């Protein structure tokens, strides 16, 4: 006869977080009695104890006889946090702890904010497809305002988007002197030298007393960017210009419609007549107000300007 059959006790091997302990209880004991013994050794209250036995699985019924549990060397797994750990958790989530955190007190570490992945390709494109140095005319009034104007154009969300899309790069972005590019017949609004080596833009009004409308100058810049690809003003050029202009306006999420930006003297915004002239002439990579797409005579350019004035008058009277 096995001597253990006459024994009045039953042993159970409990393992928890790498440590083990053998509990010996009377055979009349139940799982509830075992839980109390576990609390005395592992400092885990019965409600927080999860016991798993071989072949029996998770033990939920505390009325199970202790003899139903396998004796050593088989192990019963204990899962649970100590009472001290549970108190810390409750304290950290209490209203008092929330108040401490609100006023800078010590509290549990907040969940880490997910780190957004950097778009390395976009960053590389932004540094590659952009403008080089900015040059302004130091002999004219307020050169710092002109520099800020050109920087604003270079950092324009729409301009940056089309620069990347079309892989445009410009060696230098410069301010144009109105006096050097104005005649009785025309005014040059922009120049593109050697397909992007340098782009010059007319920023100032003819009298140097203010700055031209921002979106008007930006359209001139779009025109000059198209000259990075096409020198002549043929069908391909105009199609590319329209694509660039549309791309800039769609990507300009900060402003819509006819919102006006740009610097006027003392905050004054100056609307330019050339904004409504749609037949500008472009020669040698320059945007010239008052000409025709293929150049044309002075008479032709004057006739076009007169027709444009008539159209504007009709719109105002409508």
From TrEMBL:
Residues 278-318 are annotated as: Disordered. Residues 122-314 form the WLM domain. Residues 298-318 have a biased composition (Basic and acidic residues). InterPro entries: Ubiquitin-like_domsf, WLM_dom. Gene3D superfamilies: Phosphatidylinositol 3-kinase Catalytic Subunit, Chain A, domain 1. It comes from the Eukaryota. Residues 279-297 have a biased composition (Gly residues). GO terms for molecular function: proteasome binding. This is WLM domain-containing protein.
